[in-house]
Amino acid sequence: MPFAGIDIGSTMTKVVIADENENVLAAHIGPTGVEHRHLALRVMDETIGRAGLTFDALDFIVATGYGRINVPFSDKQITEITCHARGIRALFASAKIIIDIGGQDSKGIKLDADGKVSDFVMNDKCAAGTGRFLEVIAETLGIELADMGAIALKADGVVQISNMCTVFAEHEVTSRLAEGAGVPEIVAGLHQAIAGRVVNMTRRLGIEKEVVVTGGGAKNAGLVKAIEAQVGFAVRTPPEPFITGALGAALAGKDLFQRGIRPQRPRKREDVTFFS
């Protein structure tokens, strides 16, 4: 009994196929393209192939993320908040808080004793505290985004960065470089500023152990360390932080199927249609 979840985010698209025992059979992580509908079907086909399955073998498909309305073959659309919670519940049964740092937004999610969403906060109005913010600053510094975490861990100190608006932060970083500040210290300062912003936002929910960090930000060791300094204790990260939403979508599909809800999509791959 395989179930699929597809998470179309602002910058990355993720697919997970899981079985009834909540084991991941196959996964896909790739950039989000312009045409979500055709992209969704293409990456679903790729992931199904990796799992050694066929389209009509999937018992339920759930779409999530901001592009979820553009998945014509899904049986259900569920918000990313709910799907993140379901995915984390499967990975960390005792999790209380999720801090998700994505490409274009950041979220804090509070879970109740059953691992369900009790409250959440979100920053989706500006790039501050997101992967896009770090991407822009990495370009300003002339380094790779993927290297920022390791670079920050080499810092001997921290250069305070006061501006979190991307444009002003670029200018401030350029000024700090001109003053002779080291790149590791600047990057450490950026991580400290982002961690402070995201954690302060999440404090509205009441931070308590255990905290799990997800999204692209969880792959940045320097940022994770900065978050730990802000909350005052060690946090956890999933084995693959990008796919928790897609995993949760797949498992939400399993839950619905086991409650007797049956697929509404076309059962055959050739019957999937696209509308203008």
What does this protein structure show overall?
The protein has 276 residues and is α/β, with parallel strands linked by helices. The protein has two domains: 3-83 and 243-269, ATPase, nucleotide binding domain (Nucleotidyltransferase, domain 5, 2-Layer Sandwich), CATH 3.30.420.40; 112-237, 2-Layer Sandwich (Nucleotidyltransferase, domain 5), CATH 3.30.420. The chain contains eight helices and nine strands. The chain has helices at 36-50, 80-91, 131-141, 148-152, 166-178, 183-202, 221-231, 244-258, and strands at residues 3-8, 12-18, 24-31, 60-64, 76-77, 97-101, 106-111, 117-123, 211-214. Helix 2 packs across helix 8 and helix 6 crosses helix 7 (221-231). The chain is globular. The two termini are 33 Å apart.
